[in-house]
Amino acid sequence: MNTIIFRTVSPVLVALTLLFSAFVTLRGHNEPGGGFIGGLIAASAFALYGLSHGVPTVRRALRFHPMEIAGFGLLLAGGAGLLSIVFARPFLTGLWTFPSVLGVEVALSTPLFFDLGVYFVVTGTMTSIALALEAREGGV
Amino acid sequence: MAASDPHAPAVDLAVAMVTAPSTASDWLIVLPVVVPLVTGAILVMVRHATHLHRPLTALGLALLFGIDLMLLGRVVAEGPLTMMMGAWKPPFGIAFTVDLLGATFATTAAFVALVATATAGPAINTAERRYGFYPFLMLLMTGVTGAFLTGDIFNLYVWFEVLLISSFGLLVLGSEKAQIDGTVKYGLLNLVATTFFLIGVGLLYGTLGTLNMADIAAKARAAGPEAPLVTIAGLFIFAFAMKAAAFPLNFWLPASYHTPTATVSALFAGLLTKVGVYALLKVTVLLLGNQTGAYTDLLVVMAAATMIVGALGAIAGSDLRRILGWLVISGIGSMLIGVAVGSPGALTGSIFYAVQSMLVMTALYLAAGVVEARAGTGDVRRLGGFYAAAPLFSGVVLVLLFAVAGLPPFSGFWPKAILVESSLAVDRPGLAAAVLVSGFLQTLAVGRIWLYVFWRGGPEGTPDGAIDLSGVRVIENPADRVALVGPVIVLTAAVVLIGLVPTAIGGLAEGAASGLLDPAGFTARVLGAPAP
Predict the structure, then answer these.
(1) Between β-strands B95-98 and A108-109, what pairing exists: parallel, antiparallel or unpaired?
(2) CA–CA separation, B84 vs B93, rounded Å?
């Protein structure tokens, strides 16, 4: 795996894949996509980076341990459900707001944050597994 | 929403969604799941700051216990409560429905976890803490509480998965050979049970077109004879009996429960099999109560065999915690009587037995942990002299051993008396005899523990009258001593209290039993309309 072609191309691919994972996650509310598949795509990006540059590089680039990212996702998803307590609605009720940012209407909602939570849980968990497997093989 | 609002939906959402505002007290229904989930998430985030884990877990469990108590108070006062997740009404949405049975079990589970976790300070080593003992514990509590409180049968499957995955994690924490061996057996058999459960859920949905428990309870009784509900009930009984470790599906329990740290096996013994019993009670009595008549004889034999086999296994065992594992199984047999007989009295006895068993078995496993910490072994042949070394602790354990054998005036006596009485009332003298015989065998088994570990002067080979305490180490750090022995004493105090004042738990169990036998009332409370 340690060819110069792979090592040169992989950072570009990783950046594109991460961008695509964000796109897939955000379009997921109304069209195919969402946090789960987006998280898988992001995890595959980190796994690819681990193959080309080694697991320690990925861990440094991530700053946080993948499991911590997964914990953050769980907290975000739970928090999105809890927000409805303020509006006297049952747990996990979808709440929507449509603020106008620079003249463009942006749909913000608790389902969005729940989906982002799923995204982080899946990213963190799958990255954690992938990096552990790659490290077991002795890295690059 | 105003008519000019461009985001107003074109349809009337009131048909499918709850529009009434939910009060803070409605949130009591879901908070027992949210609190451990959020605590678990925070613990995963701060996984390297292991010094924060213990106080955060204690805080989370104390909060959980407090909320459970408030919830129990409300259920006692008002009957079953329900909250629709995301405001979507069934059959679209998932409902959380708390009846007296679920609230009682959830509260006891939270109390047991809160007390038992105090022993984790000295009992769980740094490596196990780093691998995530506390996050796994909180997620286990999320799963256990979710299973007790949910009102949707597929959601029950999800919580089973949550607690199973967390328990796999807790089992392998130490990464020892025996632990991995135990986990493989435990994991494989539980996966088989879960698969059968899932097949049952799928068939049930295909037959009745609903997953909401209240809806199932109504539709199962309205369904014609062509609906394969007896088969579905059989699948559920198989799956939950395996999870509850009923004979002949019990072999995974003594093979796995003694392998992890004492704190973990105490929690498993106190909580996990009871989730299986709970699911069995709920599904076979409340949901499909009119369909399980075909299985009555089978269940009666199963209950009797589980009681006797468990007690015999306990007599034959030589490892302290393995013996306790067999005693757990024997207790499961007593709890199955309610499922088998289905009369109000038998159900009361079973629920009472389950609640006190959570306390007694957890306390006994924790006590076994103290013995192992001091003697360095769990082999009863190499133990001895504990009465001479620690008379107070020995007295406390004697109370627990009496309670598990069902000797008066401790907590195990009352439910057994109720079970014998109600077995005779429905003309099942064999079942009543099985309770009494298993009680006698249990007394022999616990007498053997008492004689070997506590009463005699030292390990095997010590001459009569001599006292050999060389094998019994003293726990030097007084804080560790309090953390290890304190929870045993607190739980024993609860056991004695239940034994002396049985009416409190007995009343709860009676209410829970009558709730199980009133599916129409349950459906009316949850769906807001009488059953069609």
Answers:
(1) unpaired
(2) 6
- The C-alpha atoms of residue B242 and residue B319 are separated, in whole angstroms, by 23
Q: Give the best residue of B1, B23, B45 to mutate against chain A (max A CB count within 10 A).
A: B45
CB contact (8 A) between residue A71 and residue B135: yes
What average pLDDT does chain B have? 88
| Range name among A2-6, B122-126, B371-375 with the lowest pLDDT average | B122-126
Residue of A nearest to B35 (CA): A78
Give the least confident one: B72-76, B82-86, B263-267: B82-86
| B464-490 burial: b if 16+ Cβ within 10 Å, else e | eeeebeebbeebeeeeebebbbebbbb
- Cα B445-B451-B454 angle, rounded to 5 deg: 120
Give the pLDDT confidence of B8-64 residue by residue, as tens digits.
666 777 777 777 777 777 888 889 999 999 999 999 998 888 888 888 999 999 999
Among B351, B325, B326, smallest CA distance to B338 is for B351
The CA-CA-CA angle for residues B102, B107, B109, to 5°, reads 95
Query: Measured between beta carbons, which residues in chain A are less than 8 angstroms from residue B47?
Result: 65, 67-68, 71
Evaluate the omega torsion of the peptide bond into residue B409 and state whether it is cis, within 30 degrees of 0. yes
Residues B439-497 have pLDDT tens digits of 999 999 999 999 988 888 878 877 877 777 777 888 778 888 888 888 999 999 999 99
- Domain residue limits, chain B: 28-527
* Residue B352 structure tokens: 């009472």
- CA distance linking residue B396 with residue B387, whole number of Å: 11
Q: Return all residues near B496 (Cβ < 8 A) that are at least 6 apart.
A: B399, B410, B411
What is the mean pLDDT of the segment spanning B244-260? 85
Terminal-residue alpha carbon distance, chain A: 7
> What's the total number of domains in chain A?
1
The C-alpha of B241 sits at a distance from chain A's nearest C-alpha, in angstroms, of 32
> B367 CB contacts (<8 Å, ≥6 apart)?
B393, B396, B397, B400, B488
The token pair that represents B36 in the structure block: 């451990």
Distance (Å) from the alpha carbon of A29 to chain B's nearest alpha carbon: 15
Structural domain range at position A87: 4-136
CB-based contact A94 B27, cutoff 8 Å: no
CB nearest B44 (choices: A74, A88, A96): A74
The CA distance from B492 to B498, in Å, is: 10
ipTM for this model: 0.88
